[in-house]
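Example 806, ligand copper (I) ion.
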Amino acid sequence: MNEITPTPAERAEKLKGLGSSRKRVEDVRFTQGKGNYVDDIKLPGMLFGDFVRSPYAHARVVSIDAEAAKQVPGVVAVLTAADLAPLGLHWMPTLAGDKQMVLADGKVLFQGQEVAFVVATDRYAAADAVELVEVDYEELPVVTDPFKALEPDAPVLREDIADQKEGAHGARRHHNHIFTWEQGDREATEKVLAEADVVAEEMIYYHRTHPCPLETCGCVASMDKVNGKLTVWGTFQAPHAVRTVASLISGIAEHNIRIISPDIGGGFGNKVGVYPGYICSIVASIVTGKPVKWVEDRMENLMATAFARDYWMQGKIAATKDGRITGLWCHVTADHGGFDACADPTKFPAGFFNICTGSYDIPVAWLAVDGVYTNKAPGGVAYRCSFRVTEAAYLIERMIEVLAIKLGIDAAELRRKNFIRKDQFPYRSALGWEYDSGDYHTAWDKALAAVGYEDLRAEQADRVESFRRGETRKLMGVGLTFFTEIVGAGPVKNCDILGLGMFDSCEIRIHPTGSAIARLGTISQGQGHATTFAQILASEIGIPADNITIEEGDTDTAPYGLGTYGSRSTPVAGAATAMAGRKIRAKAQMIAAYLLEVHDDDVEWDVDRFVVKGAPERFKAMAEIAFAAYNQAIPGIEPGLEAVSYYDPPNMTYPFGAYVCVVDVDVDTGQVDIRRFYALDDCGTRINPMIIEGQVHGGLTEALAIAMGQEIAYDELGNVKTGTLMDFFVPTAWETPHYETDWTTTPSPHHPIGAKGVGESPNVGGVPCFSNAVNDAFRAFGHVHAHMPHDHWRVWKIAHDLGLHG
Ligand code: PCD
Ligand SMILES: [Cu+]
């Protein structure tokens, strides 16, 4: 038989499908300054909104006088809670089942809280008027410490619910208590702890930080009173959910609301929540009949929109003398700020924190999380980790190190000894998850071999000796981390947001000439969906990725979906894309069989065509099939070639990774030099290796930021001490080390193409890895654990407290 040319491999290559490091199609517009962000949207007659914000963290609002502000030329309106109250919009529901003030209703609960909204013909007039709004505050005692917030005589923060005994997640036992979330078997775990050979215990604090995307949050609301249509362009990570929520709280019918997320300059979880700025802009547009733009500045973004972390985690881990882990106990005090506005699936008030048994086969565990109100900003977003997973990974990966010290066992060996084995998957964890697939031992051995682990330890020991001899002032730390992520929320049966099941969707239209458009319920904020989702389709339907447009973010055109966060796009919308592609292929098969005059079952798929079985020279390529779909009357088959899939994943996906970081720490200055960072990620089937590498670089850099200095810090009066980029650490190329990336591939057994998410992994694994490295540098001197962020001062302090400064 003659060789068919081009060969299947050559044809596959042309498609730029799965596994191709296809260049990002969106970069053509971004690198030429042709992106279209919220602030690029300029409508005729557009007004601008700006907030009066509270300088106090806790105060009564006695009166607001806006007369002088209204006199500023260009000022159109000044909204206060009193104006919103008749509409029932002075408070709004939060994603966590709580409610939050849109504008201060009698009091303020955190510094930077929205008090009044000034609307003017330009930003400058609005800002000038903001200065002239006179608010009379009466200061109240401030609580920024969640432990103090729970003391019996602590000030009542939420007077609106002070007497409410039931919260959204069960009983409340104190006026500042929000919920207690308990998982696992307390009795059995405490029994194991009581009888264990060894128990390691530590309080691990994961400090408050903030996603701080390059572009802050903003929107343009435009009410067209003639058609009754409201259009809102905004930096939304979940445009459809925003539309539904907007409809429910405004009473405008959902078909009359159009939400558009244009290009987004980074989200990182910051743009999942619903903020007062959106509500105020919508109300202002309805009131004035003009479009209203609101874009927050950097300080507003850092002070008032969703923070991340702020978890005090008390851990106890039990083991046998030879290092077999027998149980994990954990209690978390979670500081949620003034309102519980955490972005988590409804049934998970602490997100997926119960993944805290990590990559280890721990027979029994118990976890309780107490949510607490304080005078800090509300929020509690993922920030590059699927719902509190980075906190969980940080806890277990620090506890493993603490246990290794206590047992006197090498931490790499301790991990290896306790990993869930390959043959145990699907693995049911003690706290209730079913891990889909993994091969931890292989990944770990590959990572340790790649960095020359034994040699690193030998070098470290030598360094300690030279330090003791006074020959050097630098110590060396080796940070290890093995993490398991949980991404892809995710089964509708247990994951929803405000009652909306967390499925996702893809709709495909193949055009007559064999090119296509696919629309998804997700929205890229920089991840490169336009590039990668076209690759999934290219492999499924044999149309080159370059001939497929991917569109997201316009609720008038995209199918309903729950959006992009929690690394769910690939696991959920990516699966929907593959499934919709398969529907296209099924119809294409019938068309091909008709054209080839054989039975449907007598043709088979071959890269970009259907061929007659056993006669590959007889085929119909996808382009030809597409044309036939629009030009021939095929008996029993409708014209056209379109498909839609709404995908409810059967389980989440569990990406994992092995990271190693080597640091040199200057004992006298606290300066930490990152000598080496090796990251092995396993995200199952890899769609675009180049994009994955970019995701890993970005996530590791955010991890570096968090571990080494980035923090939202408050003083005792509740003043935000890190409200500008002078104080809030965002690494530049200068601080960012070189990263070595690597991978193994363990496909997800339930995902149609075997892919797992990857965007968040580097943050989840990176933070404990940097932190472990810093802590490890001082291990030889009896040091066990120091809180992040490991900025120079805090590192210097570790050395100082150990007496290393002589
Ligand atoms: N296997 C695989 C996987 C994946 N991939 C790719 O990669 C990416 C990613 O993915 P994922 O993982 O699925 O994710 P998504 O969903 O898409 O996204 C999300 C994420 O993403 C990350 N990344 C990024 N990047 C950028 N540029 N920007 C941004 O913003 C961002 N963000 C961040 C975050 S934070 Mo959250 O929201 O916190 O929850 S979550 C998150 C895309 O493109 C995809 O396709 C591939 O290729 N392969
Ligand atoms: Cu998270």
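Summary: The chain has a mean pLDDT of 97.
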